[in-house]
């Protein structure tokens, strides 16, 4: 198995540390690169103060770090994982901290939101960065008890830290599909709807009762009285689940949970993405799963329609200039400030999500500003179907005829028809996926051709 790799360099002033002394835990997270409200920076400082519910917070941060080090699915014939552990991403959104991790297999995303009620301290800045979660620090974090206050510092003064002379540098090769998948999660999250909700007790019963292994093919989770059960029958009233072990990141936090909410993407009998959200004390743990354990987010193609929208490119540049790491992006305000319709702002945000510049919070039904600390231009360019569609246009392979179009590709000519349910193509790829993994290159080429007149 081959993959296009991009080397991500981390440079920390010193390793993250957690010191337990005098009945208090002091956690200092070292930061590497990223952006703040005023632009790029090397070692941002986001927060200093106490983090409420310390045992819960420690468990949630460990869960995020573990997902970032885990491959939940290994393709047949792959002897070793391509991806080394990527460091978690932390965003300061003024009144909250968000910790994000994305699995090596590109199919599991976990986010811990420390909400306003859990932060007692000073927000020094807003922005996004990578943080060091080294082994000694994780081991110490696992020993946090319920009675110990947890003092947290995200980043530290550059001058003071440099005196320690413990600069840490690491280089991690990240496959293009990992980078693309991390960004794609936001588009998937924006399409889900609330489907199931159960109490914490029922959530514990269900998750802890799952078998240790399962088929890669989806089963369905459905309501059963006050709880949940599994069925092999595809149903629009349920949520598909592939790979029971992919729900295990929730397990350590179930004892703190208030409830479990499950959100499903539009129904597909072959399986669809889902978001599992634990409501915690002044916090949330959000787990997003791809449709199948063997099918990562990188191939979903949900962002392609937005990227093919030529109008949204300029709109995205304008909207991005107005963002200021808001915890909840106000679409109406942006529309007024940018002099755009709300529909155009939403398309621009969709495009920004594809480049890792915004995330989506299903609990609040809104985007939030964060910029992944990776190359945004590379993220936006990692879509071979869009590249192939542009190549078809350059060779005059598209012929428009009203609501029908003809696309010459190799030795074949495919027919793209515009219908009330969207464009449909006669190519084998569309026949296999039926639009469930975004548009094919022929539909994209026709979309681009219609825009250009």
How is this structure best described in words?
- This protein has 453 residues and is of the alpha+beta class.
- The protein folds into 4 domains: 5-97 and 115-174, no CATH class; 187-298, DNA Polymerase III, subunit A, domain 2 (DNA Polymerase III, Chain A, domain 2, Roll); 304-381, Arc Repressor Mutant, subunit A (Orthogonal Bundle), CATH 1.10.10.10; 384-452, no CATH class.
- The chain contains 13 helices and 26 strands.
- The protein has helices spanning 54-68, 135-141, 158-162, 176-189, 200-208, 304-307, 310-322, 331-338, 342-354, 376-381, 384-394, 428-433, 441-452, and strands at 5-12, 17-21, 24-29, 31-36, 39-40, 47-51, 89-92, 97-102, 108-114, 119-123, 127-131, 150-154, 168-175, 193-199, 219-224, 227-231, 239-241, 259-264, 274-280, 283-289, 358-361, 366-369, 398-401, 404-409, 412-419, 422-425.
- It has a 10-stranded antiparallel sheet, sandwiched between helices. A 5-stranded mixed sheet has the order 2-3-12-6-10, covered by helices on one side.
- Strand 23 and strand 24 form a beta hairpin.
- Helix 8 packs across helix 9 (342-354) and helix 11 (384-394) crosses helix 13.
- The chain is globular.
- The chain starts with a strand and ends with a helix.
- The model has no long low-confidence stretch (mean pLDDT 87).
């Amino acid at each position: 198995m081959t993959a296009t790799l991009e080397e991500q360099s981390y440079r920390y002033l010193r390793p993250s540390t957690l010191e337990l002394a005098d009945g208090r835990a002091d956690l200092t997270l070292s930061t590497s690169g990223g952006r703040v409200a005023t632009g790029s920076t090397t070692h941002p400082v986001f927060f200093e103060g106490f983090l409420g519910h310390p045992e819960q917070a420690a468990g949630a941060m460990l869960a995020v770090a573990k997902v970032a080090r885990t491959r939940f699915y290994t393709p047949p014939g792959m002897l070793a994982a391509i991806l080394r552990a990527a460091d978690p991403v932390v965003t300061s959104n003024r009144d909250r901290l968000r910790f994000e991790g994305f699995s090596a297999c590109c199919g599991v995303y976990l986010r811990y939101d420390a909400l306003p009620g859990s932060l007692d301290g000073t927000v020094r800045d807003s922005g996004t960065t990578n943080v060091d979660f080294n082994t000694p620090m994780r081991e110490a974090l696992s020993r946090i008890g319920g009675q110990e206050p947890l003092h947290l510092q995200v980043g530290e003064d550059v001058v003071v830290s440099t005196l320690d002379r413990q600069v840490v540098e690491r280089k991690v090769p990240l496959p293009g599909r990992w980078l693309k998948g991390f960004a794609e999660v936001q588009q998937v999250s924006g399409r889900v709807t609330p489907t199931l909700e159960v109490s914490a007790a029922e959530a514990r019963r269900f998750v802890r009762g799952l078998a240790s292994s399962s088929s890669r093919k989806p089963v369905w989770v459905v309501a059963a009285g006050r709880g949940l059960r599994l069925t092999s029958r595809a149903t629009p009233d349920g949520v598909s689940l592939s790979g029971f072990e992919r729900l295990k990141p929730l397990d350590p936090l179930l004892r703190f949970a208030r409830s479990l909410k499950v959100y499903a993407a539009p129904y597909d009998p072959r399986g669809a993405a889902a978001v599992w959200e634990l409501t915690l004390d002044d916090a949330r743990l959000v787990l997003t799963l791809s449709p199948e354990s063997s099918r990562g987010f990188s191939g979903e193609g949900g962002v392609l329609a937005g990227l093919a929208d030529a109008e949204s490119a300029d709109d995205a540049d304008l909207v991005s200039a107005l963002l200021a790491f808001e915890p909840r992006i106000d679409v109406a305000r942006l529309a007024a400030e940018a002099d755009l319709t709300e529909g155009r702002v939403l398309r621009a945000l969709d495009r920004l999500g594809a480049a890792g510049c915004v995330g989506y919070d299903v609990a609040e039904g809104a985007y939030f500003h964060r910029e992944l600390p990776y190359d945004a231009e590379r993220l936006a360019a990692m879509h071979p179907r869009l590249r192939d569609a542009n190549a078809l246009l350059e060779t005059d392979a598209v012929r428009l005829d009203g609501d029908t179009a003809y696309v010459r590709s190799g030795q074949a000519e495919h027919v793209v028809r515009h219908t009330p349910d969207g464009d449909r193509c006669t190519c084998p790829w569309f026949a296999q996926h039926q639009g469930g993994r975004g548009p094919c290159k022929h539909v994209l080429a026709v979309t681009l051709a219609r825009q250009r007149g």
